[in-house]
Each structure stands twice: as C-alpha cells, then as structure tokens.
Specification:
The structure holds 2 protein chains of 2 kinds. By secondary structure, chain A is an alpha/beta fold. Chain A is built from 9 helices and 18 strands. Chain A has an 18-stranded mixed β-sheet that branches. The longest helix of chain B has 17 residues. The chains are: A alpha/beta, B alpha/beta.
C-alpha cells in the first residue's frame, strides 16, 4: 500500500463521520490539496536529493491512546536549563498537555483542541499562512491537525525566560503525528524560543509539524531548533516566519543524531527593514539523514538576511542543503548572504548542496558560497609543524569549524548544553569560542 | 581605435548580421516523419548504418516529452512546422572547388567576415563554413592533411571515415540523452568533424562558422572532435542568423573526445539573432555540448561567449573519466531586451585526482533573465578530486533577473569542492570614481563590463577575443543609464 492510500484510508476513517460538520469541510479541502500535490518524488526539484519513497513501505496509524507522561520526564529532558524558569508548551503524542503550562500574565495562550480552529476563519488564515504552497506536507498537517497552540506575546514583552516548544513522541505503533502552532509576537516584544524534538518510540513516527511565526514591528525573536537522539523519527518540520518592519529573527538549528529530518525554514520579509539570521549545525553518521531547506523571500527593500550552515558528515551519513534566496523586483538595497560548508570525515558520507539565488532587483548585494571537503591539509600541516600532535590539530580545526555557529546561541544554558553535545559528537573535550580566546589574549596583554 | 570609441560606435548599432542572402534554396517538405529522415539520409548519400541510427533516434524521440525544467519561457514549438533540410540549390552536386560555388554564397560569408578564400588576413585559421544544412567550404584542408589531421564536414567524414564515425558518434551524447539530442540525432544534416592523430599538435585554429539563412527552417548540426593520444587542438565556433519575426530552432550536438594526454580547447562566440527590442523573433538555441576526457591527463576546456539567441539553453559539460584529467568552463552570458539564458556546465568527476574549474559571468540587462545552472558531481571513486566554481552576475537595470542554481554532489571525503557566487549591480562608487576622472557614464560601464568579463575573454584565442569584446558592447546597447 502506498503512502497516499495509507493516509487516505486514515482520513476516511477518522473524519468521514465528522465531515458533515461545517468546520471539518475545511479539512477535506486541505486533504484534497495534499492529494493533488501527492508524495513528492525526486523528480520534484525541491525534493531532488530527498527520497521519500520509503514512506510507501510503512503502514502508519493515527495515535489512539496517549500514554501518560509524567512531569518528571519532561523535567529530565529539560534538565540542561538547570531548573531555571521556563515556559513549556508540551506537544506530547500529538496533543497538548495543559497540566505543564505555567501561564504568564503578558501572554495570551490558547489551546485549540482537535482542530477546533477550523471554526474560526481568522485563525485558519493564520495557521495556514505558509507561503511555500508547493509543499504538500503543509496541507497534510492541516488536514490531520489535532491540537494546536496559539501564543500571543504582548506589546513590549521582554523576558529572558525561554519558551519551550516540547515535542515528545512515545507511540507503540507506526504513527502519523500532526500539530500546528502559531506564535504572534506583538510590537517591540523580545522572546527566546527553544523547539525540541524527542522520540521515545521504537516504531516509526512520521511527524509533520507546522510552526508559524508572525513578527510584528521591531520585535526580536530567537528560535533554537534542537534535534538530537531522535531515532525512528521521520520529521518534516515547517517553520514559517513573516517579518514586519524592523523585526529581527535569529534561527539556530542543531540536528545531531537523527534518523530522517527535513527542516523547512521559510522567511518572508513582508515589510522593509527586517533582519534574519539563519544558522545551523548538522551532524550525520551511520545512515542518518538531514535535509535543511531554506527559503528567504525578500519581497520588500532594505532587508538583510544571512545564512550560515555547517555540516559534518561521518560514517554513511548523508546531508542535503538547499537554500534559496529570492529577491523580488522592488526589493532594492537587499543584502542577502548564504554560506554552506561541509566536512566529510568518511569516504562513505555524501553531501548534496544547492545554494540558489533568484534575483530580480539590481541594487542588491547577494552572495552565496558552498564548500565540501576534508580538513584543510595546509592548515593541518601548519599546526603540526609547530609541534602539536595531529590528533590535537584535527580537534582544533573541528573546534573552529563549529564554534562560530555555536557561539551565536544567546540562551547560556542552551549554549552550554549544545556545546557539550557537539563536543561529544566530535570526540572533543570541550569547544572553545573565539570570544574566549579574545578574552584570554586581552588579559595577557 | 580606442576601446571607448569602439564601445560607443557599437552601442548605437543594430544587429549587424541580420541580412538575408537571396540564394535559391532547396527544402525538404515541412514536418518530421520517417520519410523525411530517409530523404535527408538519401540527400547526404550516407552509408546504411546511419539510416538505422537516425531512425532509432527518431523513434526514441517520439516517445520523449519536451523538457521544461529550465528557467525559460516560450510558446510551444510545433515540430511539424519546420523544414528539417534546406540547402542552396547550387549544392545539388557538391561543387568541387570554390570557383564553382554560387558567388552569392561566397558574398554572404564575405559580408560576415569569414575568409573562405585562403587569404593572408586571417591565414592562421582553417574554416569550415556551414550554411543552413550544408557545409559550404573547408579551407586549408590539404595543409592539415599533411599532418594527418582530418578536418571536414561531418557528412564527408561519414562517407570517407565510417569506422571513426561509427566508433565515436553518439558515444558522448547518445540519442537517448535528452529530447533535443534525440531530435538532432534523427535529422542532423551537417557539421564539422575533426580528428587529430597521435602526438600531433594542430598548428592552426580550426573554426566552423554556422549561418542560418532560409526561413522556417531549423538548423541541426553535429560536431565531432576526436583528439588522439598526446594531441592538441583548438577549435572555434561562430554563429549568426538573419533578422526574422519568427522563432527559429537551433538544436546542435557537439561531442568531444580527448584520449590520453590530449587537449581540446573549444571556444564559441554565439551571436544568433536575439530577437528585436520587443522580444519578437530570434533563435531558440537548444544545444547539447559534452566532452569526455577518456584517457589519463587529458584536458577539455570550454569557453563561450553567449550574446545572441532569444533563448539559450546549453550546458557544455565534461566527463572526467581518465585519472588526472582536467575540465574547464569559462563563460560569459549576456542577455538584453527579452532574451533568456539558462546556461552553465556539468563537471562529472569519475577518475582519480581529476580537476575542474568553472568561471561563469552573467550580465543581464533590459527585461532579460540570465541563469547559471551547473552541476559538480564527485563520484565515490574520484579520489582527490578538486573543483572550484565562481559565478558572478551583474545586473544592469531593475527589470532584469539574474539567477544561480548550482548543484553540488560530493560522495567522498578526499575531494574539495568550492563554489562561490555574487550578484550585484555596477556600484555607484565605481561609477563616481570613473566620472570623477573624466570618463563618461557610458564609457565607464563599458570599461567595467570589460573588466568583469576579462577572466573569460582572456581564455579566447586572439582572433575571437576582439570580436567577443565588440559583441559584448553591441548587446548592451540601450541598457545604459
């Protein structure tokens, strides 16, 4: 049975009785759109290097029972925050567990159960406001969506406390999981988001998550996406960001130890003077697969975007980077940069990278660069010739390769945690940041 | 003449080669079917293996769909509304010497500045001139024969050297490769053939000049160049067509084969009629060019200056099969008015320590769209492979588009691949600097464009570099300011 038949049967079973309800007719519209687009094949340029044919081999079900998850488990996974204050939005097995949520006064927080947002056209437009309409999985998520979260961060809210979107999967059968989130950040607000994906299931889970952001004027948002130890999870996440004038967005993705991850990061500059940074580190080994797919739409003038993705590939790991910068006709004075660097540590590792520029305005400065290769032999020689062992020299170079992007994480607990994870991956004792070296040299002067 | 005067003079010129020569033509009936292919085969007096090959290609072509992944837009082409064969009537029996050639044809090439009579002016270049479907004349044949170099029309080669042709024709670009290659394989009528024997360094530039003259025809030429062990050849190709309101199809196939230690340098200055200011007319240039470095230490270098054609759709590629072989690609693609170009290269690294270098310069003006699309593929066995790619785009005006679509696939850890691209306009600072020193805006842009393209222009043989430089400024006409 193919994937399309699989989900069609599931849709039929779950929603055929409900479809007579007005709000659920929307589901059908989205599902028809998904079927129209179908499961992407490698002939589709956006999925050229990402073969999804294996989905046809798995029989997915919808989650029926939810295992009880106790607070302690969530705390365990979030122990890196050292018990500091946090706001947790827990998506546990496809539904949002309210008991964890600690509300804050300057926060509007709504949980919409079982697709109830379909009754509200305004909310539908917010949840379905993604601009990559060629991605069928957006429609699949909408059609099957269960619980959704709606967060509104009030004007001028500024708090160091991280907001954690906590995705935990613990199913006993091959399961399909779909949730939606919408975060509206009002003017001048500043927040720090950490999205964590964790899988405890032994069977395959196919998770399709949509997380939409609307950054109002002069707001400042940092989003950290953390994917580690997610065996058996087929994850396609769709992050969509709409930026208003003066908004600043910073995305850090860390994909470490995965089974199959596709990060769709879409950024739309809807008003002039927006800024977006997209940084990422991915590490693949032993049949792991990570695909970072970014789309930055410069529809308005005077915006800045800067992408920096670093990959380390070991064993039989595979990675794909597909970055696209689109500059519309009137988006003059755009500055857009993109860089993707890859280190291949093994002969069986594979990297496919596709940095793209599509530019229709002339007064712009756009660059992209991509590299793939082993550690620079000349640099290695330089260090070794100064009496440092080859192993140490290698770790120094690896250190410098990853530290640039690690350093950009603002939340200190998270930064330390990710640093440790990456260091462990690379068999390094610790990772030093350039800023630390600067401090040392300044002190010695 | 100073560089600036040249620029100024040519910025005011229209497409120079747009005239039509009144030559009595003989056409094949419009349309494409097996009878037409037999007709071409008979006309060309080819051996039976070619008919079989052509028909196989045609049948395969019928099963294929026209590709549309390139970033170009054009109305559907009616493949049954094209003459697949057009030849000057006077060529019914091929003239034995230049004296027998219709003087009108000679005048045509004279006008284009192509010396068919071996005169002193460009005496260093041997020319094969192709008008519509047939090769008109090949110069310096005897002199090359002394060295054992075969330089003739592909038609002659099929008749005189069937073994060589049978061995290599379609070996780099099989008819199954793509839609236009299949079409070409079925109906190609002429083109050039070069064979350089072992250890011979070809003493002069070999050149083919393609000219479309007849209307409602398509030109389908095929070029096959074989460089045997340790040999060297430099080959030039130029093209023009008259101004017409209709769109004409040009679907050529070029195959290069470099054996051990051989080197082939292939330069193109493409100046097909680009269409008028409203984007009406012009040539659809859908070309498949590919070379294979079969032997160790071989080298293939593509240089192209693309200024013409309504639509350019070509990717001169290198398959680096031999160990230590080298592939190079230097390109300037200039689009103006409503021209569209989707061009680039493919570097397929198969052998050990293979190296490739890509330098692509795109210049877009007017309402045009200019895309670079390139693939660098390092296979698992290509240990120690190295690639460097650089793609720069220059935008002149705010109605045009410049795009870069690189594809990088690396399958081993000992190879290094680097790609970098920039897109920008001519900065106001540079213009101001030039103005300050008394250089007019127009001249300054000419200077900057020339500087931008220098890296590629330097790769062209001398005779072509001058022409290419002039072409760049012609095509920029009206885009300044």
């Amino acid at each position: 049975m193919g994937f399309i038949d699989n989900v069609s049967a599931l849709f039929e079973k779950k929603f055929s009785k409900q479809i007579c309800r007005d709000e659920d007719s929307e589901r059908l519209v989205f599902f028809e759109k998904f079927k129209e687009l179908g499961l992407p094949t490698i002939k589709n340029e956006d999925w050229k290097y990402t073969n999804l044919a294996f989905l046809n081999e798995i029989n997915f079900q919808l989650s029926s029972c939810t295992k009880a998850i106790d607070t302690g488990l969530v705390e365990k996974y979030l122990s890196f925050l050292n018990g500091n204050d946090k706001i947790v939005v827990p998506y546990i097995n496809n539904s949002i567990d309210e008991s964890f949520v600690k509300p804050l006064s300057s926060f509007d927080y709504k949980i919409l159960r079982n697709g109830s947002f379909f009754a509200n056209t305004k909310l539908i437009s917010k949840f379905s406001n993604f601009f990559d309409s060629s991605n069928p999985f957006n429609f699949l998520t909408l059609a099957f969506s269960t619980d959704s979260a709606y967060l509104n961060v009030n004007n001028g809210f500024e708090n160091e406390i991280p907001i954690i979107l906590f995705y935990l999967y613990d199913f006993e059968i091959n399961t399909l999981s779909n949730t939606l989130s919408f975060v509206e950040v009002e003017e001048d607000a500043k927040i720090n988001i950490i999205a964590i994906f964790i899988n405890r299931s032994r069977d395959k889970v196919f998770a399709n998550e949509i997380i939409n952001f609307h950054l109002k004027r002069n707001s400042n948002v940092e989003v950290n996406i953390l994917q580690f130890n997610i065996d058996n999870l087929v994850l396609i996440d769709n992050f969509n960001f709409i930026l208003e004038s003066g908004a600043t967005l910073k995305i850090n993705t860390f994909s470490l130890n995965n089974y199959f991850v596709r990060n769709n990061l879409n950024v739309l500059f809807n008003e002039p003077y927006g800024t977006a940074f997209l940084n990422g580190i991915y590490f693949t080994a032993d049949d792991e697969f990570v695909d970072n797919h970014t789309l930055v739409l410069h529809n308005q003038p005077n915006c800045i975007s800067d992408e920096n993705f670093r990959g380390i590939l070991d064993g039989t790991g595979r990675a794909v980077f597909n970055g696209k910068i689109y500059v519309a006709r009137d988006a003059q004075k755009t500055n857009a940069y993109q860089s993707n660097k890859n280190l291949l540590l093994s002969n069986d590792a594979r990297i496919n990278t596709r940095p793209q520029l599509e530019i229709y305005a002339d007064d712009v400065r756009c660059t992209h660069g991509a590299t793939a290769g082993y550690l620079d032999q000349e640099m290695l020689f330089y260090i070794v010739s100064r009496g440092i062992s080859k192993e140490k020299a290698k770790s120094l170079l690896l250190n410098s390769f990853v530290s640039e992007n690690l350093e950009k994480v603002e939340q200190p607990d998270l930064r330390n945690f990710v640093k440790e994870l990456v260091a462990k991956k690379l068999n390094l004792e610790d990772i030093f940041f350039c800023s630390a070296i600067d401090e040392l040299t300044n002190a010695s002067l | 003449m100073a560089e600036n005067d040249i620029l100024k003079e040519i910025t005011e010129r229209e497409y120079k080669y747009g005239f039509v020569s009144l030559i009595e033509q003989e056409y094949a009936p419009k349309g494409l079917n097996e009878d037409i292919i037999r007709f071409i085969w008979e006309k060309k007096k080819e051996p039976p293996f070619m008919l079989e090959w052509r028909l196989r290609a045609f049948r395969y072509w019928q099963s294929m769909k026209e590709p549309h992944w390139a970033k170009v837009e054009y109305p559907p082409i009616d493949y049954q509304d094209i003459h697949y064969y057009a030849a000057p009537k006077s060529f019914k029996d091929k003239p034995k010497s230049l004296e027998e050639v219709d003087p009108e044809i000679l005048r045509t090439f004279e006008k284009l500045g192509i010396p068919l009579r071996e005169r002193e002016r460009l005496a260093g270049v041997a020319v094969d001139a192709v008008l519509d479907s047939v090769s008109v004349a090949t110069t310096f044949k005897e002199k090359l024969e002394e060295l054992g170099i075969i330089f003739c029309s592909i038609n002659e080669a099929i008749r005189n050297y069937p073994d060589l042709v049978q061995k290599y024709l379609g070996s780099v670009v099989p008819y199954t490769d793509n839609f236009f290659a299949a079409l070409n394989s079925a109906v190609f009528s002429d083109g050039s053939f070069v064979y350089v024997p072992k250890g011979v360094r070809c003493p002069m530039e070999l050149s083919t000049y393609f000219r479309i003259n007849a209307s409602e025809t398509g030109q389908f030429e095929r070029t096959l160049i074989i460089a045997d062990e340790g040999s060297y050849v430099s080959y030039l190709e130029g093209c023009t067509a008259p101004i017409r309101d209709e769109n004409q199809l040009h679907a050529a196939v070029v195959e290069l084969i470099a054996l051990k230690d051989a080197e082939i340098k292939y330069s193109t200055v493409q100046n097909w009629y680009p269409g008028d200011k409203e984007g009406k007319g012009g040539i659809y240039n859908f070309v498949t060019k590919r070379g294979i470095c079969l032997g160790e230490n071989s080298k293939i270098s593509w240089t192209q200056v693309e200024t013409g054609s309504a639509i350019t759709w070509k990717y001169p590629s290198c398959i680096l099969k031999g160990d230590n072989s080298v592939g190079e690609f230097y390109s300037i693609a200039l689009t103006n008015n409503y021209q569209q170009a989707d061009t680039g290269t493919k570097m397929i690294h198969l052998g050990k320590n293979t190296r490739s270098r890509i330098v692509s310069k795109g210049i877009a003006a007017g309402f045009s769209n200019n895309s670079y699309r390139g693939l660098v593929q390092i296979s698992k066995k290509a240990v120690g492979a190295r690639n460097f790619s650089q793609c720069d785009s220059l935008l002149l005006g705010d109605k045009c588009g410049a795009h870069t679509f690189p594809y990088i696939e690396v399958n081993n850890s000992s190879s290094i691949v680097e790609h970098e691209a920039t897109t920008s306009k001519i900065s106001d600072e540079i213009l101001f600097y030039c103005n300050q020193r008394g250089i007019s805006k127009e001249d300054a842009i000419g200077l900057i464009v020339n500087g931008f393209s220098r890296e590629v222009l330097n790769q062209l043989p001398m005779e072509f570099a001058v022409e290419a430089q002039k072409l760049l400024s012609v095509s920029l006409e009206g885009s300044v300011g």
